[in-house]
Known about the structure:
By secondary structure, the protein is an alpha/beta fold.
Amino acid sequence: MSSAHTRAESAKTRRNATPPTQASAATKSNDALTASAQGVGVSSVSGAKRGEAAISVSHLVKRYGEHLAVNDLSFEVAPGEIFALLGPNGAGKTTTVEILEGYRKTDRGEARVLGLDPQRDGATLRPQIGVMLQQDGLYPTMRAGEVLALFASYFNDPADPNALMTLVGLEDAAKTRCRQLSGGQKRRLALAVALVGKPRLLFLDEPTTGMDPQARRATWDIIRNLKEQGATILLTTHFMDEAERLADRIAIIDDGQLLALDTPAGLTTSQSTTTTEVRIRAKTPLDASALGRLDAVRNVRAEPSEGYALETGDARALLVELATWARDTHIDLTEIRIGRASLEDVFLRLTGKEMRE
């Protein structure tokens, strides 16, 4: 199934939508934000009851021949939550999300989305969700504005396509053919397509891949705004900082199994050991063996472009030793950073450091 066809099936309800109103140049930005705000959590279609999880996965199993892609996976996503599903390539993320979107059947277990069965109740569920796929699959010969208007026509009450183009920063590219858009522009158009139906729940698969830093931060702001309006968001990403900054909770999976589930702060705290890491930088290369001889140092790692990582069981004692050592050796330390394991450290500790295809 092509990416464009998948999105069209997700969006398509009725084709009797009224044409969108043209926003004036002076109010486009505000109208775009309003379109997003009005479209979240206002669907009159039946869905999750009060107090019910927006997404519920219970003992999910999916096989492809001999390969067990999803292995007894269970988790819940609360209404209005940004939930990040992380894992290396081949961990089972895509299969899980496709089951939740209704495009793949389970072999065993249960999945409920907005109180509905994605397979049996697909026609009721699809108008309430927005899907941003990892592979854009946009119609290459159509212009960006035409693509968004096409998907808007599938809904009875779509967001204003012109306002959405402004929201994602593509108003100047509306007449550009999709094949001529940059990678980052295609991702922003895919986000606009996911938002055009005013979804109650969004599936965002690698939403900021290919974006420049400005577009990435703007996309984060859009996602946060959607949460403030009550939308539920399931996010998959390989950017640990993105998950850490956006997600209320993070699930890490591998080999189709849940390895950890907590808030970003909870993950870094619970997965930390009694060892604290102190990172230092200097204007000139340092003698790692000399650092290793400091009494409070357990281990030293020289990391290209990252300086030196010192592991210790007594950070305060190490700071005193470092200051004395730097004074005695006439070395100017340009940075000293102390803290718990990062989310990336936790992720690698749980899933391993080997490359995945």
